[in-house]
Specification:
single chain, alpha+beta, Nucleotidyltransferase, domain 5, five-stranded mixed sheet, about 30% strand, binds adenosine-5'-triphosphate, cell shape, nucleotide-binding, ATP binding, cytoplasm, Cell shape-determining protein MreB
Length: about 350
Amino acid sequence: MKFFGNDDDKKEEQKRGLTNSLGIDLGTLNTVIAKPSGDKFDLYQIPSVVAVKKDDASTVLAVGEEAKMMLGRTPEDIVALRPLRKGVIESIVQAQALLERAMEIGTKEGERIGRIVIGIPGDASEVEKNAAEEIGKKAGAEYVLVISEGLSAAIGAGLPIAEPDGTMVIDIGAGSTDLVVISLGGISDIETVRWGGDDIDNNIVDLVKEKYNVQIGIHDAEAVKIEVGMFHCDEELENLSTQIIGKSIETNRPKKISIDSEFVADAAEPIIKEIISGLNLVLERLSPELITGIYNNSVAVGGGSQIRGLKERICAELSIPVTISDDPMTVVAKGAAIVAAEPRALEPEVRLKAMK
Ligand SMILES: Nc1ncnc2c1ncn2[C@@H]1O[C@H](COP(=O)(O)OP(=O)(O)OP(=O)(O)O)[C@@H](O)[C@H]1O
């Protein structure tokens, strides 16, 4: 990554004590915090969950791990909720509590947060962006910059974002998938597909019910997806199998069933179809100048990018070779941390916003 740093600016910031910066990926499922530390990053992760009073959703009682433990087993007057749904902030108060916790985790005692960069979905509206910025400021950061998760991922993955040729990021998250084309340091196109890994889990639950007359929990469905999951593709991928216990709908008794990769691929088919359709739209709009860059520099990130068969399926359907990030869950936060430490990593217009 080439930075355009200016030593005077840095000294100025140091004078003001703005030495601590954080990158935060405010995700539907997990919030990842990256703190630059020399050439590397300190990384932290918390579940994007808050526990609130049932009759007053603005009174936050617990955040992160503690709140996650309460999911599904809270006392009557408490509910555990996710402040983001499909990548969109649902409750500002709750998202603020989450962000405050994230900043606390990334800060040593006595340290002040100078600048945070928050990655949010690229198709977020101005209102949502402003809300995220507001939340960051209220949570105690001096400077807040909100950037697209896709751009952040590209920076974190070390893609050549400043080149005119173009690069593409496919970010398959829990609730949504962002398809982001970047050139000359900015986003030249974005398509958000409101489908992601969570929808695969839901489809697994439904398909198990339909095929076996058995109810399984959503967490078991996710575990199965992670263990044996794949997308249908032309390549012969190993058909793995695992067993889970569900509740028989007929007898109400526990019932053991086997689920294999082909089964998960059937459940995941509507989601990969939506992703391919989104990519088709991006390609339709793509200017021919960017096609070589997309061919040479497309990367898949996000938890869902780890499902086997993704790159094979995309290459077969769209003739685009995709590299799967070896760091899919933290790359957005890392990219945000790079920008937080050095806003000139972005193009001039965005930099101006960062410095305001
Ligand atoms: N090894 C894995 N194989 C397949 N799926 C995985 C794996 N690890 C995590 N996932 C899935 O990835 C999703 C979470 O990804 P990620 O943390 O990137 O999402 P997020 O940033 O919280 O969501 P969003 O981007 O929608 O706000 C979940 O659906 C999870 O089940």
